[in-house]
Design goal:
By secondary structure, the chain is α/β, with parallel strands linked by helices. It is about 50% helix and about 10% strand. The chain contains 12 helices and 8 strands. It is elongated. It starts with 8 loop residues before the first strand and ends in a 16-residue tail after the last helix. The relative contact order is 0.09.
Amino acid sequence: MAETTNTPVTILGLGAMGQALAATLLKAGLSATVWNRTPGKDTELVAAGAVGVATVEEAISAGGPIITVLLDHASVHATLDPVADRLAGRQLINLTTTAPAEARELASWAAGHDIAYLDGGIMAVPSMIGQPGASILYSGSRTVFDTHRETLELLAAAEYFGDDAGFASTYDFALLAAMYAMFGGFLHGAAMMRSVGVPAAEFAQRAAAWVTAMTQTLPLQGQAIDTADYAGHSIQPIAFHKAALDAINRASRDAGVTLDFVAPLKNLLDRQVADGYGSLAFERTFEELH
């Protein structure tokens, strides 16, 4: 059974995300102890009822689960290694952005110190924490997830993906890859439109509607990839898309826009056409990525 929201929580790391997590828990009535390597970031949280401490040793003495929201994998070790002998029997929830292999390494490190470890990938920006639409993906210790699920749900929709501590970050990074590619495409398009005097904000309105419409094809693309049915898929073939990318590249050069975002995709299509795959569906490009 999940623990009630009276459970005390320790948060290590008060960047924008750490502050948002702590503020959300305080608003829900939890007791929160907060620490940050650089002092001065806990002022508003302390005013809202948090206990601000100067050392990690003080922070971990507060009891309850420990949530790390630090800069990177190395900073988690730098923060916790010196106090590892005091963490035996504790529960650690790592929401620091860590690569899958790093999450698995932290899980192994935690097991070696008798620490129950749960890894999480935050699918939200700080302002979304505690609001509809935010989600955090978890993997690692099922016990930690189940014990504190009520608390975790205060932060964002919580979903558990099994005991492989690296699974959640794999999902996290895969979704972020799709996001960054989309952002890159938007920036490229905005640069093209500036060449004809259209403001980026105006272009953004059309781009948002267009990209939203195109995402409706993703389930069909996923099915094509999973079945490797690239011959029978209905979306135009690679050769069609190569011609489009060729034209986009020419238009971009004419507009004085660099090809950093679109050229890699053109290269993938060029290679497939040269290898005789031009008549197959665009989704076949997936096979070039692994």
